[in-house]
Design a protein that fits this description.
The complex is a heterotrimer of chains A (about 500), B (about 375) and C (about 375).
Chain A (H helix, E strand, L loop, with lengths): L1 H19 L5 H11 L6 E8 L2 E8 L5 H15 L4 H4 L5 E4 L2 H9 L2 E5 L5 E5 L27 H11 L5 E8 L5 E8 L5 H12 L9 H8 L11 E3 L2 H8 L4 E5 L5 E4 L17 H30 L7 H11 L6 H21 L2 H21 L5 H16 L3 H39 L1 E2 L2 E2 L9 H8 L29 H6 L2
Antiparallel strand pairs in A: 1-2, 2-4, 3-5, 4-5, 6-7, 7-9, 8-10, 9-10, 11-12
Helix pairs in contact in A: 2-5, 6-9, 10-14, 10-15, 12-13, 12-14, 12-15, 14-15
Chain B lengths: L8 H12 L3 H13 L3 H25 L5 H9 L1 H33 L6 H16 L3 H11 L1 H16 L15 H15 L5 H4 L8 H29 L2 H4 L5 H7 L9 H31 L8 H17 L4 H32 L9
Helix pairs in contact in B: 1-7, 1-11, 1-14, 2-3, 2-9, 2-11, 3-9, 3-11, 3-16, 4-5, 5-6, 5-14, 5-15, 5-16, 6-14, 6-15, 7-14, 8-11, 13-14, 14-15
Chain C lengths: L1 H18 L10 E11 L5 E11 L2 E11 L2 H11 L3 E3 L5 E5 H4 L3 H10 L8 E5 L3 H11 L3 H14 L8 H8 L6 E9 L2 E11 L2 E6 L1 H10 L8 E5 L11 E19 L2 E16 L8 H28 L7 H8 L1 H6 L2 H4 L4 E12 L5
Parallel strand pairs in C: 1-4, 1-5, 5-6, 6-7, 12-13
Antiparallel strand pairs in C: 1-2, 2-3, 7-8, 8-9, 10-11, 11-12
Helix pairs in contact in C: 4-7, 8-9
The chains are: A alpha+beta (about 500), B mainly alpha (about 375), C alpha/beta (about 375).
C-alpha cells in the first residue's frame, strides 16, 4: 500500500513542478523535455522557421516513421512557411496542450511534438513503423507474443518502446570498434535501474578498444566477469517481450545494429531456466514446468556420470529386479562404460551440429537417420548397450528442455569431465566434481552480482519465487539483488474487488 | 545498502555448523558409547553445555575487539613478538587439524567406498575443492556452506526412516544414569572432539561485526544448539538400533545403520551416502584452511604482494603432505591425541589468557592505538 | 620435449580410461550370485552352494556352483576360481543356512557379511530344514527367478504373521543382545515342493529348536509383532455330524500384548503376558452366529484354546532356553538390580511366564 502511494506521490510532484512556472522560453521547454526523457539518445529535434519564428519538431525516432515525418510534416511546413499550423500539416489528429508531461507521454507513444515560442504544444499523431512479424527461431512459445527482433537497431528499440510506453525508457547510442564503428545502444529504465550498475556497465564498455565488434557475442566476451567459465553470464534473447520484462526488473539491455539478439545483464543462473511463456500460463502449470526444467538440469548434468559410476563401481545400488536386464544388455559390449558413453554423446553432438547446418527439411531426415537408424544399428552391432542409449537419449532430451541454448550446451559439455571423474572414482569422484562445479558457480558473478542468487546468498522468499511461479498479483516486490531504486511492483489492493463482492 | 554483499548472522550459524559437523559425526556415537555406554546421549548434552560456555567466553573476547581479528588483537594484548608467536601457533594448529580431517576421512572412504585406490589420490581429491573454496572470501564460503547444509537434513531424514523401518528397541536406553558421572564426563570429552569448529568464531567475529554483538552470540549459540541436537538425535538412533554389545564393534554406526536400510529404488543407500557425506568433510577442511589463510595473511603482513590464494595452496599442500606421513593406524591415533591436546591450548587456554589480560590491563579496541 | 610429454599424458589418459581405475568393478564382468546356501559337511567344513544366473543364447538360466572350505570367505575364493569373471555375492538377497550349520555358532559364519562393505546386510536369512544345497538345486531346476521366489515366499509369510521380519542386520543386533533371542524362518522340502515349515528358534548364536507355523503366529502375536494378517483355526466341538462343522477359522485383529514383570525377586521371577485381541471369524460352516449366546460360547472356547496353546508355546520356548520375549532385556532396563543377581542362562527356564488372553468377537464376515 505504501509503495502504491509513493508511486503516486512521485507523479503528483512532477505535475506540480511543471505548473509552477507557466511561462517558459522555447529552449527551456526543449531542455525540460530532454530531461523528462532522461537524455535519451533517440530523442531528435528538427528546427524550422515558420511564420518567421523558430519552430521545433521534437520526436523519438525509434517510435515513429521518419519517412512519414518528412513528407507529412516537414515538407508542408517548409513549402508554405506561413499560416495556421493546423491546416498545413496533413495528419488525422492534432492535440493541443500546454502540459509538458502530457507531451512526454504522447511522444513515447508515437507522437511528435511541435513547439514554438507560444504556450501551446501541438502533438501530432504519426503512423507507426509497420513491421512484418518474424517469429524468433530459437525461443518459440505456444502462447504469447510471436514477435521477434529484427536486425535494425531502431526497429528493435521501437519494439521495446512499444512494450514499455514510458518516457523513462532511456536509450544511449554509441559506437564501438575502431574500423567497424558498430552502432549499439544501451537501454534501461532510468527511474528503476541501479545507477551504480549503469556506471559499471559504461565503465566496462569504455575499456573496449578493438578493431572490430561484430556481434553481441564480442560484447559478451569483453564484458563478462569470467571468460573461462562454461556458464553463460549474460542472457541472449530474440524476444522483445522478454527484454521488456527484464528491463522492468531493473536490468539493462544492449541492442546492436545487425543482430537480432539483445544482451541482458546482469542475470542469475535461474534466468536461463525461465521462459517468457511462464507468465502466459496458469501459475500451477508454469510452476510445474519450472520444476521440470530444474529437474532436467540435474539429469542433463549428472545422469550419464551417475550411470557410469553405478555400472562400474557400485552396482549394488541397482535393485535386484532390474539388474539382470541391465547386465544382459551389457554382456556383449566390448567397451568400458566411459567409452560407450563418450561414443554416444559425441554422436549426439555430431547430429546436433549437422542438423543446424543443413536446411530445415533435410535436418529432420538427419534426426530420423541419426536417432532411429544409428541408434538401433549401434545396439544391434553390440557397440553400445541398450541402457546406455536410453541414458544418453534422456540426457539429450533433458538438456534440450532448458530454454537457453548456451546453458544446455554448457551442461552437456560439463557432463564429460563429470563422466571422467565418475569412471575413475565412482560416486565419490562425481561428488567431488559436482562440488567443484558448485564452488565455481558460487564464485561466478554476472557484472558483480551473484550468479546463483537466490540460492546463494540464500533468499528464501525469492527462492520460492524461482522454483514455483506464484500468481502475478502475489509478487508485490521486485528482487532485491539488482539494487533497484524502488521495489514496488503491484499493490496489495489490486484484488480489492474481492472485498466489494463479499459484502452481499 | 546492497543486500547482497552483507554477511548475515544466519550465514555465521551455517559457517559454524558446517565446520563442526564433519567426519566425526559418523563415528561419534561409537566414540561416546565406548566411554559412557547407554548414557551417551547425556554426555552429548553435557558437551553441548560446556561448549556453550566456551562460546560465551570467545564471544566476550571478540566483543572487546569487535572489528579486529584474533590475529590482530593478539599482538595488541601480548605485544608484537608474542602475538606473532601465537598467530603462528594457530597457523600450525589449522594445518594439523586439516591433515587430521584428511586422514580420518580418507580412512573412512578407503574402508567404505574405494578400497584399492591409493591414499594420496583420495586425499588429493578431497583437498582440491577445499583449497579452491578456502582461498575465497567469507561470503563465498558461507554461500557454499548454506547450500550443502541440505545434506544434514538428508542424514536426519535417513535416520528417521531407519527409526521407523528398523525394529528399534527403546529399552536399550535404560537404565538411565547407570554408567556414572565420571564415565559421562569422559563421554562428553569424546563428544567435544566431534564438536570442534566453534573456535572459528574468534576469526569470524570481525567479518560479522556489522550485525551487532548480540546477533553474533545468538548465531553461534544457534549453531551449537543445532549441532548438539543433531548429534543427540543420531546418538539416540544408534543406541536404539544397535544392541549394547554390538555398538562396540561398529566404529561408524551412523553409516552402518544407513547400510541396513533397504529401499526399493536405491537398494544400498550407504554406498551413495558415504560418498555424499564427503561434502561435509570438505567444508570442515575448508574452514581450517581458511583459518590458516587468515593467520598467514596477518603473520606475513609485510609482504603485501603475497596473494591470498597462494597462502591457501601452500598450507593446503603442507597439510596434504603431513596427512600422508603416518602410515599405520597407531601413528594416526597418536597424531590424533597430539592435535586434540593442542586444541585445548588454542580453543581454551589462549583465548582465556587473552581475555584475562585484556580485562586486567583494560585493553580495548581503539584505546591502545 | 613438450610433444613427448603430451603424448605420454595422452597415453596415460587412454590407459586409465580404457582399463579404469583401481576400484573399478564392471557390472559386465561380475557373475552375480542370486542365492546361496551354507551347509556343514561331515568333516566340519562349510559347503557353499551358489546360484549364478547366466545366458544360454538369449534366455537366462541358472548355474549352480559349489565350494567347500573352512570359512565362507574360503569357499567364495574357491568358487571364484571355478567361474569366469568375478564372483559377486553382493546382490544376494536370500541366504539359506543348513540346519546342521545353524546348530553351531552362526555368527562365526556370518561375520564376513558384516565386515564386507559391499555385502548387503538387509538380505533375508532362512534356515533350511535339512540340507540347504538341496533346496536350492531343486528350486533352480524349476524356477529361474530363484532369489525372487524365496524372497516372495518369506515376504508373504511375513505378511501373514508366520515369520518374524528379520534380515542379516537385525539378527546381528539380537545376537549381541544378552537379553533377547530370535526366530528365523524354516524352509523345507515336501513332495518336491519348497514350503515354509515354521520357524527355527535361536538362542544366542545357535539354533536350539523349532516352532510350527501356528505356534509361530501365536508367538508373534504375543510378542506384539502382528503383521498384516494373522489367521488361526480352533476346534470348538467334536459332536457335529459333519467334521468340518467342528472348526472355526478366524483372524486376529488389533491384538495388544503387554508384558509385565509381576515379581522381580531373583529367586522367583514372575512375568505376565496379557493379550487382548479382537477376533474376526473367517470360516464357520456351522453358521449360527446370529445369536449372542453362541457368539459368547465360541469366544470363550477360542480364548481357552489360545491360552492352552500359549502355555504349550511358552513351555517349548523355555525348554529351548530361548528368551524370545526379551524378558532379560526388560530386566536389564527396568530391574537392573535383579538382573545383576540372576544367572539368566540357568534361571530363565525356571521363571514363571503366565499368558492371559482376552478375546472379543468383532467381526464375522458378510453373512451370519
Amino acid at each position: 500500500m505504501s509503495g502504491f502511494e509513493k508511486k503516486n506521490n512521485r507523479r503528483v510532484k512532477q505535475l506540480i513542478h511543471t505548473e509552477e512556472k507557466p511561462l517558459k522560453s522555447l529552449e527551456e521547454k526543449v531542455e525540460e523535455i530532454k530531461q523528462g526523457l532522461f537524455q535519451t539518445d533517440d530523442f531528435k529535434i528538427r528546427e524550422l522557421t515558420f511564420n518567421g519564428k523558430p519552430l521545433m519538431i521534437l520526436f523519438i525516432d525509434s517510435v515513429i516513421d521518419n519517412k512519414n515525418l518528412q513528407s507529412y510534416i516537414i515538407k508542408p511546413i517548409n513549402e508554405k512557411s506561413t499560416g495556421d499550423l493546423k491546416y498545413i500539416i496533413s495528419v488525422n489528429s492534432i492535440i493541443e496542450t500546454n502540459s509538458i508531461d502530457e507531451a512526454l507521454n504522447a511522444m513515447v507513444d508515437g507522437h511528435c511534438a511541435i513547439m514554438s515560442e507560444d504556450e501551446t504544444i501541438y502533438l501530432v499523431c504519426m503512423p507507426k513503423i509497420d513491421e512484418a512479424l518474424n517469429e524468433p527461431f530459437n525461443e518459440k512459445v505456444i502462447r504469447g507474443s510471436h514477435q521477434g527482433f529484427s536486425e535494425s537497431i531502431t526497429k528493435n528499440i521501437h519494439f521495446i518502446r512499444e512494450r514499455i510506453s514510458n518516457p523513462q525508457v532511456t536509450v544511449k547510442y554509441a559506437t564501438v570498434g575502431e574500423t567497424t564503428k558498430t552502432k549499439y545502444a544501451l537501454i534501461y529504465i532510468s527511474d528503476l535501474t541501479d545507477p551504480e550498475l549503469l556506471n559499471m556497465i559504461e565503465n566496462r564498455i569504455s575499456y573496449i578498444k578493438a578493431d572490430s565488434i561484430q556481434s553481441p557475442g564480442y560484447f559478451e566476451e569483453y564484458l563478462e566477469d569470467n571468460s573461462f567459465s562454461p556458464f553463460p553470464q549474460f542472457l541472449n534473447t530474440e524476444r522483445p517481450d522478454r527484454v521488456a520484462a527484464n528491463l522492468m526488473e531493473g536490468r539493462v539491455g544492449l541492442v546492436m545494429e545487425g543482430s537480432p539478439t539483445v544482451l541482458l545483464f546482469p542475470v542469475t543462473f535461474f534466468s536461463f531456466l525461465q521462459t517468457s511463456e511462464d507468465y502466459n500460463n496458469r501459475s500451477f502449470i508454469s510452476s510445474f514446468f519450472r520444476i521440470v526444467r530444474l529437474f532436467s538440469f540435474i539429469i542433463a548434468l549428472c545422469l550419464p556420470a551417475f550411470y557410469i559410476a553405478v555400472i562400474s563401481f557400485n552396482y549394488e545400488i541397482i535393485p535386484v529386479e532390474i539388474i539382470f536386464s541391465i547386465k544382459s544388455s551389457l554382456e556383449y559390449v566390448p567397451f568400458p562404460p566411459l567409452i560407450e558413453a563418450m561414443i554416444m554423446q559425441l554422436t549426439l553432438e555430431l547430429l546436433r551440429e549437422a542438423s543446424i547446418r543443413l536446411p530445415n527439411p533435410i535436418a529432420q531426415t538427419i534426426g530420423v537417420v541419426g536417432g532411429l537408424v544409428i541408434g538401433t544399428a549401434v545396439v544391434e552391432a553390440n557397440l553400445v548397450s541398450n541402457t546406455m542409449v536410453i541414458v544418453v537419449a534422456l540426457t539429450a532430451i533433458s538438456s534440450f528442455v532448458i530454454p537457453s541454448n548456451e546453458l544446455s550446451t554448457a551442461l552437456r559439455i560439463l557432463g564429460f569431465p563429470l563422466m571422467l571423474m565418475a569412471a575413475f572414482f565412482g560416486i565419490f569422484g562425481m561428488v567431488i566434481g559436482l562440488m567443484i562445479i558448485l564452488i565455481h558457480l558460487i564464485k561466478l558473478k554476472s557484472l558483480g552480482h551473484h550468479y546463483l542468487y537466490p540460492v546463494a546468498p540464500l533468499d528464501i522468499v525469492r527462492l520460492l519465487d524461482t522454483f514455483i511461479r506464484v500468481p502475478i498479483w502475489m509478487s508485490r516486490k521486485r528482487p532485491g539483488d539488482l539494487g533497484v531504486q524502488y521495489k514496488w511492483r503491484a499493490s496489495s489492493a489490486s484484488r480489492g474487488w474481492k472485498k466489494d463482492e463479499q459484502a452481499d | 545498502m546492497n543486500k547482497q554483499t552483507r554477511l548475515t548472522s544466519v550465514q555465521l550459524t551455517f559457517f559454524i555448523i558446517q565446520t563442526q559437523i564433519g567426519v566425526g559425526v559418523l563415528g561419534l556415537p561409537f566414540n561416546v558409547y565406548s566411554a559412557s555406554k547407554a548414557d551417551a546421549w547425556i554426555s552429548i548434552l553435557i558437551a553441548g553445555g560446556i561448549i556453550q560456555i566456551i562460546i560465551a567466553l570467545l564471544w566476550l573476547l571478540g566483543k572487546r575487539f569487535p572489528s579486529k581479528s584474533l590475529f590482530e588483537y593478539s599482538k595488541l594484548v601480548l605485544g608484537k613478538f608474542a602475538g606473532t608467536f601465537i598467530n603462528s601457533g594457530y597457523l600450525i594448529y589449522g594445518v594439523l587439524v586439516s591433515s587430521l580431517i584428511l586422514m580420518y576421512s580418507t580412512a573412512i572412504i578407503k574402508s567404505w567406498a574405494l578400497i584399492l585406490t591409493p591414499e594420496w589420490v583420495i586425499m588429493l581429491l578431497l583437498i582440491t575443492p577445499a583449497v579452491l573454496l578456502g582461498k575465497e572470501k567469507v561470503m563465498e564460503i558461507c554461500n557454499v556452506y548454506v547450500i550443502v547444509s541440505g545434506l544434514i537434513f538428508l542424514l536426519i531424514i535417513v535416520s528417521i526412516i531407519v527409526l521407523f523401518t528398523y525394529p528399534v528397541d527403546w529399552r536399550y536406553l535404560f537404565p538411565v544414569g547407570a554408567s556414572g558421572g565420571i564415565a559421562m564426563l569422559k563421554g562428553a570429552k569424546e563428544a567435544y572432539f566431534s564438536m570442534l569448529g566453534f573456535e572459528l568464531l574468534l576469526i569470524l567475529y570481525p567479518h560479522f561485526n556489522h550485525n551487532g554483538g548480540r546477533s553474533i552470540i545468538k548465531a553461534a549459540s544457534t549453531a551449537n544448539l543445532t549441532v548438539t541436537l543433531v548429534y543427540l538425535f543420531l546418538t539416540v538412533v544408534c543406541l536404539v538400533t544397535f544392541s549394547p554389545a554390538e555398538i562396540k564393534i561398529i566404529p561408524q554406526p551412523v553409516l552402518y545403520y544407513v547400510k541396513s536400510l533397504y529401499l526399493q529404488i536405491i537398494e544400498r543407500v550407504d554406498l551413495l551416502f558415504a560418498s555424499l557425506w564427503i561434502v561435509n568433510v570438505i567444508t570442515s577442511l575448508t574452514s581450517y584452511l581458511f583459518l590458516c589463510t587468515e593467520s598467514c595473511r596477518y603473520i606475513f603482513e609485510r609482504f603485501k604482494k603475497l596473494k591470498r590464494g597462494f597462502c591457501t595452496v601452500f598450507w593446503g599442500i603442507l597439510g596434504y603432505i603431513i596427512a600422508l606421513l603416518p602410515s599405520k593406524e597407531s601413528e594416526m591415533e597418536m597424531f590424533n591425541k597430539w592435535v586434540i591436546s593442542g586444541s585445548y591450548v588454542f580453543v581454551l587456554i589462549i583465548p582465556i589468557l587473552l581475555l584475562g589480560m585484556a580485562i586486567l590491563f583494560k585493553i580495548k579496541e581503539g584505546e591502545s592505538t | 620435449m613438450n610433444k613427448k610429454l603430451l603424448a605420454a599424458a595422452a597415453l596415460l589418459f587412454l590407459q586409465v580410461s580404457l582399463t579404469g581405475c583401481w576400484d573399478q568393478r564392471l557390472l559386465k564382468n561380475g557373475r552375480l550370485v542370486y542365492s546361496s546356501s551354507f551347509d556343514s559337511t561331515e568333516n566340519g567344513n562349510i559347503l557353499t552352494t551358489a546360484i549364478i544366473r547366466d545366458f544360454q543364447g538369449e534366455f537366462p538360466t541358472n548355474v549352480e556352483i559349489q565350494g567347500e572350505g573352512r570359512t565362507i570367505r574360503e569357499t567364495r575364493m574357491k568358487m571364484d576360481r571355478k567361474v569366469s569373471g568375478n564372483f559377486e555375492p553382493s546382490k544376494n538377497r536370500v541366504f539359506l543356512l543348513g540346519e546342521d550349520l545353524a546348530r553351531k555358532d552362526i555368527y562365526q559364519f556370518l561375520d564376513v557379511f558384516y565386515r564386507d562393505p559391499a555385502s548387503s546386510i538387509s538380505s533375508k536369512i532362512a534356515i533350511a530344514d535339512g540340507f540347504g544345497g538341496d533346496i536350492l538345486s531343486k528350486l533352480s531346476q524349476k524356477n529361474i527367478l530363484i532369489s525372487e521366489y524365496l524372497l516372495e515366499q518369506i515376504n508373504s509369510s511375513e505378511d501373514s504373521t508366520e515369520v518374524d521380519e528379520h534380515n542379516l542386520q537385525t539378527i546381528c543386533t539380537i545376537m549381541f543382545d544378552e537379553g533377547k533371542d530370535f526366530i528365523l524362518p524354516l524352509i523345507g522340502l515336501e513332495n518336491e515342493e519348497v514350503v515354509m515349515k515354521g520357524n527355527a528358534i535361536f538362542h544366542k548364536h545357535s539354533m536350539v529348536g523349532k516352532l510350527t507355523v501356528p505356534q509361530s503366529t501365536l508367538y508373534l502375536i504375543l510378542a506384539n509383532k502382528k503383521s498384516k494378517r494373522a489367521r488361526f483355526v480352533t476346534k470348538i466341538d467334536s459332536s457335529n455330524n459333519l467334521p468340518l462343522d467342528d472348526y472355526v477359522a478366524y483372524t486376529i485383529t488389533n491384538p495388544e500384548s503387554k508384558m509385565k514383570i509381576i515379581s522381580d525377586s531373583p529367586q522367583n521371577i514372575k512375568v505376565e503376558i496379557r493379550l487382548t485381541a479382537g477376533i474376526s471369524i473367517g470360516e464357520f460352516p456351522a453358521d449360527q452366529l446370529a445369536e449372542e449366546k453362541t457368539l459368547k460360547k465360541i469366544n470363550k472356547k477360542i480364548e481357552n484354546d489360545l491360552t492352552k496353546k500359549s502355555e504349550q508355546l511358552i513351555e517349548t520356548i523355555q525348554a529351548a532356553n530361548a528368551d524370545l520375549f526379551g524378558i532379560g532385556r526388560e530386566l536389564i532396563a527396568f530391574h537392573p538390580k535383579t538382573w545383576e543377581k540372576v544367572k539368566w542362562e540357568e534361571d530363565y527356564p525356571e521363571i514363571t511366564i503366565i499368558p492371559k488372553i482376552e478375546t472379543e468377537i468383532v467381526g464375522k464376515g458378510i453373512i451370519d
